[in-house]
Amino acid sequence: MTRISNYNLIMKIFTHAVRYFGFPVLLILVSVSSFLLIQQGYNKGLILTLLSLATFVTLWWLEHLIPYQEKWNGNKKTIKDDLVHTFFGTGFGAHLGNTLNQFLILILAGQIQDSSNPLDIWPHSWPLWLQAVVVLLVADLGRYIQHRLHHHYTWLWKFHELHHNSRELNVFKTSRSHLMERVLQQICMYGPLLILGAPPEALLLFVIPNSFLGLFAHSNVDFRLGKLEYFFMGPHSHRLHHSIDMEEGNSNFGSATVIWDHVFGTFVTRKNHSLIEVGVQGKSGNDSFFYEIIWPFMDLFNGLKSYIEPKIPQPIKLKKNQKNPKN
């Protein structure tokens, strides 16, 4: 009995510590480890991929140890589609977006000046940490604008709905994004920074923690960040963004932080920790991968078709004994 009591006490202390300190401790650990390994000359993409996988597995384990909602761990049917969306939508989409960013820079460089950074008005003389803060503000503003537009315009929402239509949040849902949305996200977040001439060192200080934040924000771990949620995009703030109640869902549009949500009045929180239901009304999130990729394009095409095609007046059906006004 003593051993069981000691084990229960240790687990209680451990879960309490994870609940209140796990988010910042784990994020700092993987971010610092990534930075040090990259500084040692290891490949950036490889390091971020491996440590993202390690973070994924750790959070997946914690989701079963201290879940926010146990039912969010139960749906195994969509895991395959979630993974395909991760590799195709987020992986290939990010690569395509980065390629378009470089192409945009080449075009602007040729029109403005012979330089790889067309404007090059970046404050290179500032301390690196201060440049990283500027990167954070600019990138988060770009993502805020793009994200808010996806919620405002119906044709953009069609591409973004994929990320919202699931009825549960967990680490598998982190990169459940449409290809087109991810392309636009890369352009909006990093295009302005590359055009302004942000150096790789300053970009790296933002890219590293931002590579892991999405996993934490979408996780089903019962993290309690307290006042940190008023600055960082934590799980509570992001669950509210995914709320099935769109009065709550049209909020918290930032990526790494909620700074611009405070500025533009779209920050929403709850004082209590009542359970949040997520998803989109009338959507189950169980459609096939192919349908979820193609449907937004088909819907957009049909909308354009109906807008472009001439409207042919239909004959008026007259009621019985009613005379035609032209006669």
* Residues in helix, %: 55-70%
What is the 3D shape?
Answer: globular
SSE string, helix = H, strand = E? HHHHHHHHHHH
Tell me the span between the first and last alpha carbons.
Answer: 100 Å
The tally of helices reads: 11
Residue-averaged pLDDT, rounded?
86
Tell me the number of strands. 0
Portion in beta strands: under 5%
Describe the sheet with the most strands. none
User: What oligomeric assembly is this protein in?
Assistant: single chain
- Based on secondary structure, the structural category is mainly alpha
Radius of gyration: 24 Å
What are the segments in which pLDDT stays under 50 over at least 5 consecutive residues? Answer: 310-318
Into how many domains do the coordinates divide?
A: 1
Name the features:
327 residues; mainly alpha; 11 helices
Structure, described:
By secondary structure, this protein is an all-alpha fold. The chain has one domain (2-308). 62% of the residues lie in helices and 0% in strands. The protein has eleven helices and no strands. Helix 2 (44-65) packs parallel to helix 7, helix 3 runs parallel beside helix 6 and helix 4 (128-152) runs antiparallel to helix 6 (179-196). The radius of gyration is 24 Å and the shape is globular. The chain starts with a helix and ends in a 19-residue tail after the last helix. Residues 310-318 have low confidence and may be disordered.
